[in-house]
Write a structure and sequence with these properties.
CATH class: Alpha Beta
CATH topology: Rossmann fold
Number of domains: 1
Oligomer: single chain
Strand content: 25-35%
Radius of gyration: 19 Å
Strand order of the largest sheet: 6-7-8-3-9-10
Length: 253
């Protein structure tokens, strides 16, 4: 019995406990309050996102979009309520569990955040090594897979400065897919891109959602939002609201 109990304790220490959601739900916030340091950002936050769902997150600058993205990524703590993301309750998550959560999340930044002193392949290999990959052949295979998915299968040898802005953002999306995440969080992914390139990025992210991943895109590009319609959440007046019809969509700007 002692041996069994010891094994159980060892297993728990190395496998953080997760909380269950309904099968199709990957994110659920229940009566949450979100603070940015001592500034109250959002109250009474209630929403859920299912696997394979594409969701826009909109709102004016300072309305709470980025704070909500950072909360989903466990950069900002949940003070009140329950927030379950990929099986982890963010109101109860321990520091040692955060890396396990983040391996289930893919992050797409507006400003790319690529390492400028190394090639695309080396940028992606750096991420794989940092998240525990060791086998060179397996890493090369995975890098090839994600670059193919984002339409850059022949550009892994290039340096970031040799790529267009749209291509760099595709690399970032590929990077976000490396560890096969359950959720993609994209914070203004088209903010530095021209309209035509922006459309390609949104189409790519929508295609990724069809593979079963939940994709949340924070954006202020209402032209894209109307052209490629999807479920939309709005940060306004310290609340997170659902945009429910076309008339309400017209008033967003």
């Amino acid at each position: 019995m002692l041996i069994i109990n010891s094994f159980f304790i060892l297993y728990i220490n190395n496998h953080p406990m997760q909380e269950n959601l309904p099968l199709d739900t990957i994110i659920e916030f229940i009566d949450c309050t979100i603070w940015q340091q001592d500034h109250l950002v959002l109250t009474g936050v209630n929403f859920k996102v299912d696997k394979g769902e594409f969701v826009y997150l909109v709102g004016r600058v300072g309305s709470g979009k980025t704070s909500l993205i950072k909360t989903l990524n466990a950069q900002i703590p949940v003070i009140n309520g329950d927030a379950i993301v990929a099986g982890y309750n963010l109101a109860k998550i321990k520091n040692r569990e955060v890396p396990f959560l983040r391996r289930k999340l893919g992050i797409v930044f507006q400003d790319f955040q690529l390492l400028t002193d190394r090639s695309v392949n080396d940028n992606l290999e750096f991420v794989l090594k940092a998240t525990g990959w060791k086998n060179k052949k397996e890493m090369d295979t995975r890098i090839g897979e994600v670059l193919e998915k984002v339409g850059l299968g022949l550009k892994g040898y290039k340096m970031p400065h040799q790529l267009s802005g749209g291509e760099q953002q595709r690399v970032v999306i590929g990077r976000s897919l490396l560890n096969d995440p359950a959720v993609i969080l994209a914070d203004e992914p088209t903010g530095n891109l021209d309209p035509e390139t922006s459309e390609g990025i949104i189409k790519l992210l929508m295609d990724i959602s069809k593979t079963g991943r939940a994709v949340i895109v924070a954006t202020h590009n209402y032209t894209l939002l109307k052209k490629f319609s999807a479920r939309t959440l709005k940060c306004e007046g310290g609340k997170l609201l659902e945009v429910r019809d076309e008339e309400e969509m017209e008033l967003l700007q």
